Here is the input.
Amino acid sequence: MALQAEYPALDFAFNRKPNREAYLKALLDGYSGNYAPLAEIIKAAIKRSVKKLTH
Here is the structure.
């Protein structure tokens, strides 16, 4: 969806284990209806991706 909105591909920084674990926990929270953690992770991924474009 990010690419369709003309954002760069999202950088979830999965090369760091804590980020992978936080993402998986956020997905599970989302299944329970709590989307806030996933929204924060996506916001951070967008910021990392945009930052890469400007540097």
Observations:
- The radius of gyration is 12 Å.
- The chain has a mean pLDDT of 89.
